[in-house]
């Protein structure tokens, strides 16, 4: 009987040691989710990692951007739009930052060779302006724009009035940032435009977003 109790005690001790060893392996990295992971399941992918960088990398537009768990950065390659569309509201390439169900920012590049047929001083009804470079900012807005440093180039941030009219009209103040890229992916697309559609972000919020969140490609 005593021998049986000793064998049972040894078996319980061995099992306890095995659990401790397994927990130690799980919590030290690898597939266990990093230090302090304990017995938690690993994340299915990097999208849920707090403040993880996501990359946009195309021949015309390339950058890395820090995204929070509540946000999603999506990118759809442009289907080779016509030159007329590119110069009148349809960017060569664009990406979208969503927070919950709201599209809080769009990222766009335009070819400097395009010739817009609309002015940027009256954006509205789906047209948010075509900014091939900071020179395309209307003179009165460019003169009062805030200069903001970013990891990919110097930006001018300004507010534009944007309207939408159907049976009635509504107007918003949209913050816009035109970033003069230090190292553009393509020299024919020298600027990156960041807009918060319908002013879902304020001027200060957009300025902080571009100042704190960008990283150069490959960093």
Description:
The structure is a single chain. With 219 residues, this protein is an alpha+beta fold. The protein has 2 domains: 2-32; 46-215, Protein Transport Mog1p, Chain A. Helices cover 21% and strands 32% of the residues. It has helices at 2-26, 83-86, 139-144, 203-213, and strands spanning 52-57, 62-67, 71-75, 93-99, 102-109, 146-150, 153-165, 169-181, 191-195, 214-215. The protein has a 7-stranded antiparallel sheet. A 3-stranded antiparallel sheet has the order 1-2-10. Strand 1 (52-57) and strand 2 form a beta hairpin. The N and C termini lie far apart (67 Å). Residues 1-48 have low confidence and may be disordered.
Describe this structure in a few short sentences:
21% of the residues lie in helices and 32% in strands. With 219 residues, the chain is an alpha+beta fold.
Give descriptors for this structure.
seven-stranded antiparallel sheet, Protein Transport Mog1p, Chain A, alpha+beta, 219 residues, 32% strand
State the CATH architecture of the largest domain: 3-Layer(aba) Sandwich
Number of folding domains? 2
Q: What is the C-alpha radius of gyration, as a whole number of Å?
A: 25 Å
Strand residue content: 25-35%
Q: Summarize the main sheet.
A: 7 strands, antiparallel
Count of runs of 4 or more consecutive helical residues: 4
| pLDDT < 50 stretches | 1-48
Helix content: 10-25%
How are the strands of the biggest sheet laid out side by side? 3-4-5-9-8-7-6
* H/E series: HEEEHEEHEEEEHE
Q: Kindly name the structural category.
A: alpha+beta
Total beta-strand segments: 10
Question: What's the pLDDT, averaged over the residues?
Answer: 78
> What is the end-to-end distance?
67 Å
CATH T-level fold name of the largest domain? Protein Transport Mog1p, Chain A
Instruction: Give the CATH level 1 class of the largest domain.
Output: Alpha Beta
């Amino acid at each position: 009987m005593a021998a049986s109790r000793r064998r049972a005690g040894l078996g319980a001790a061995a099992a306890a040691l095995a659990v401790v060893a397994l927990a130690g392996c799980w919590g030290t990295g690898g597939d266990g989710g990093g230090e302090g992971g304990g017995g938690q399941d690993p994340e299915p992918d990097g999208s849920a990692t707090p403040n993880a960088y996501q990359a946009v990398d195309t021949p015309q537009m390339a950058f890395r951007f820090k995204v929070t768990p509540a946000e999603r950065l999506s990118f759809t390659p442009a289907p080779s739009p016509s030159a007329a569309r590119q110069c009148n509201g349809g960017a060569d390439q664009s990406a979208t930052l969503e927070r919950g169900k709201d599209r809080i920012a769009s990222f766009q590049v335009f070819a400097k060779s395009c010739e817009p047929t609309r002015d940027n001083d009256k954006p509205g009804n789906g047209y948010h302006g075509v900014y091939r470079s900071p020179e395309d900012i209307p003179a009165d807005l460019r003169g009062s724009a805030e200069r903001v440093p970013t990891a990919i180039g110097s930006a001018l941030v300004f507010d534009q009035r944007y309207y939408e009219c159907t049976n009635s009209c509504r107007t918003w103040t949209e913050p816009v940032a035109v970033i003069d890229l230090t190292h553009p992916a393509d020299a024919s697309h020298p600027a990156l435009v960041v807009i918060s559609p319908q002013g879902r972000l304020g001027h200060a919020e957009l300025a902080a977003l571009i100042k704190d969140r960008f990283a150069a490609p490959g960093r």
